[in-house]
Each structure stands twice: as structure tokens, then as C-alpha cells.
From TrEMBL:
It comes from Scrofimicrobium canadense. NCBIfam families: murB, PRK13903.1. One of its GO terms (biological process) is cell wall organization. It comes from the Bacteria. This is UDP-N-acetylenolpyruvoylglucosamine reductase.
Length: 332
């Protein structure tokens, strides 16, 4: 049976792969030459309709090890939300606002995943990674990773044609440091409102997790095989950081400038929730940042819509939206 990337990605788009291997990364990686794509949950990927001519590897490692205190070493193949649930069940705060994000632990520092006022960089101590340049395992500290908004040195290396979609370093495990507490801080206005606490206030981490999952479900951002609004790669564009926000745009100050809502820019540019260009791809009916597959959609259609949105936003606001997913065999 031919493996297709549409079978292993949440967008359910992508053509055949030459080779598919599932197992321990440390056993597999030393033997692989050529183009490589390491898959976790396949949740942040747009793959070409023509497929991928290299090797696709899915990590089977699933161990969570206690290092002492509140530090944990987690294999890259562990499902991200399973580890979040593990931490919340043990009254360990730090990850609760990141509940419901699809994918694996290994992908978390690559993307520096974040939501509802939190990002994973705050809890990552270091990673153990396979360096494809020297063909051996290395340790990279949080400082080495250079994590920024939805970015890291790991993700930046994947933009090089030399390394392909997975990049130079392949995460083997991640060391986290959490906080022994049943309470966590609420830093996002929408979440604070749902929990009925002030922004910057505290709530039980179990309540924060439940609230985040509820908010994500309401936006079609929790995977559901029967709901086409969830057939996406998550948010397709990052929120741009600018020196001056457009009039009326939801925005807030960050260290690097003013972060503007990409969803607002998209909707103001004439692309409301549910927008379609007539094919099998449309914006989610609940979340204008998600480009969704309505069944039988293609990468060509996704790219066509993304280019149209990007072009119109740039024309109106002189802001060029940056894509969040990893592109496999295609470009925006």
C-alpha cells in the first residue's frame, strides 16, 4: 500500500511518499541519507499534491522520565496534549494554557508553540537532538535554540534547501521545568473572561485546561474527524509584528514591536470566516486564520487561497503575512 501524506497530516492533503518508516529515531536516523521529513502529529504541515521523494519517519518513542524536582525528560514521540494532561493531573503548572494543541512533544520547541498568552519556550530547559551535519546526538540549551515567536533555530534550519522540511536538527527528547502548583497565571483576555478572573490573575490549572479546550473546540481547533473545520494545519499565518498598527486593529505591545491580529487583517481585507474560492478549500467557519480542507481539497487550492489573502492584506495595509506551517514540496 502506498503511503500518502494526506493519510498522516491533519490538513489531509499531500501526495505519495517514497519511503515511510516508523520506529525509534535514534535507531533510524544514522542510516538515512537524502531528504528527510520527521512527522509527529502532522498538524503543522502543507504537503504538495505531488508528494515527497525522500524518507518520512514517524517517531514511536513514548517515555516520560522524571529528572527530579519538577524537571522531566520527554521523548519526542509523546503526544503533546497527553503530556499537558500528565502535568495538570500532577499539579504541575506551566503548560495548561497550551492544552489541545495537536502534534508531538518533539515539534513543540521547533515551532515554539504558543496559545492564550503562553509559549513553550518558558518551560523548555534543553533538547537532545540528532545533528544531521555531524551525524550524532547533541544537547541544545534553551539559549542555543534561540526561540522566538513561532520560531527557533530548528525551524530556521528547515528553510535551507540543504536540509529540507525537517532541518538540520531532529529532536529526540525535550527537558522541561515546570512549577509544583495547582494554580497558574491567566495572561490572555479571552481566557480570563471565560474563567471570570482578571488578566494576570490565577486559576486552578485544571480549570485553565478545561477552559482552553472549550475555547479551542468553539473555534474548530481541536481535531474531530467528522468536522471539516478541524481539517487544517492550525493557524495558517502568524500575527505580524509591526512598528505601527492599522487603525482599529486589535494589537498589543511586545519586546519587538506591536503585534497585530492576523485574523482581523484577513477579515478586514474581505475574507470572512467560511470564505471559499469555489473549490474544496475554505476558511474555517469559526476561525479565519485556519485554511481548511472541506473534503478532496488540494495543496494547489490552499496555496492559491493563501496567496490571494496575503496579496490583498499587503495591498491594503503594507503588511506581509508570514505563514506558520512547514511546506513540504511546495512554496507560498
Amino acid at each position: 500500500m502506498v503511503m500518502r501524506l494526506s493519510d498522516v497530516t491533519t490538513l489531509r492533503i499531500g501526495g505519495p511518499v517514497d519511503t515511510f518508516i516508523e520506529g525509534s529515531l535514534e535507531d533510524i536516523l544514522p542510516k538515512i541519507e537524502g531528504d528527510l521529513l520527521v512527522l509527529g502529529g502532522g498538524s503543522n504541515i502543507l504537503a504538495a499534491d505531488e508528494g515527497f521523494s525522500g524518507t518520512v519517519v514517524r517517531d514511536s518513542s513514548r517515555e516520560v522520565a522524571e529528572l527530579g524536582g519538577s524537571q522531566f525528560r520527554v521523548d519526542a514521540g509523546v503526544v503533546w496534549d497527553d503530556f499537558v494532561a500528565y502535568s495538570v493531573d500532577r499539579d504541575l503548572s506551566g503548560l495548561e494554557s497550551l492544552s489541545g494543541i495537536p502534534g508531538s512533544v518533539g515539534a513543540a520547541p521547533v515551532q515554539n508553540i504558543g496559545a492564550y498568552g503562553a509559549d513553550v519556550a518558558a518551560t523548555v530547559v534543553a533538547v537532545r537532538a540528532w545533528d544531521r551535519d555531524i551525524n550524532e546526538a547533541v544537547r541544545l540549551s534553551r539559549a542555543d535554540l534561540k526561540m522566538a515567536y513561532r520560531d527557533s533555530i530548528l525551524k530556521r534550519s528547515a528553510r535551507s534547501q540543504k536540509w529540507g522540511p525537517t532541518g538540520r536538527w531532529v529532536i529526540l527528547s525535550v527537558d522541561f521545568e515546570l512549577v509544583h502548583s495547582a494554580y497558574g497565571f491567566v495572561r490572555y483576555a479571552e481566557l480570563a473572561k471565560k474563567l471570570d478572573v482578571p488578566v494576570g490573575g490565577q486559576a486552578k490549572i485544571s480549570d485553565i485546561r478545561d477552559a482552553v479546550l472549550g475555547l479551542r473546540r468553539s473555534k474548530g481547533m481541536v481535531l474531530d474527524q467528522t468536522d471539516h473545520d478541524t481539517w487544517s494545519a492550525g493557524s495558517f499565518f502568524t500575527n505580524p509584528v509591526v512598528t505601527r498598527a492599522p487603525d482599529g486593529a486589535p494589537a498589543f505591545q511586545t519586546d519587538g514591536g506591536i503585534k497585530v491580529s492576523a485574523a482581523w487583517l484577513i477579515e478586514q481585507a474581505g475574507f470572512p470566516k467560511g470564505f471559499s474560492m469555489g473549490g474544496q478549500v475554505a476558511l474555517s467557519s469559526r476561525h479565519s486564520l485556519a485554511i481548511t480542507n472541506r473534503g478532496g481539497g488540494t495543496a494547489h487550492e490552499v496555496l492559491e487561497m493563501a496567496r490571494r489573502i496575503r496579496s490583498r492584506v499587503k495591498e491594503l495595509y503594507s503588511i506581509e503575512l508570514q505563514p506558520e506551517p512547514i511546506f513540504v514540496g511546495c512554496q507560498l
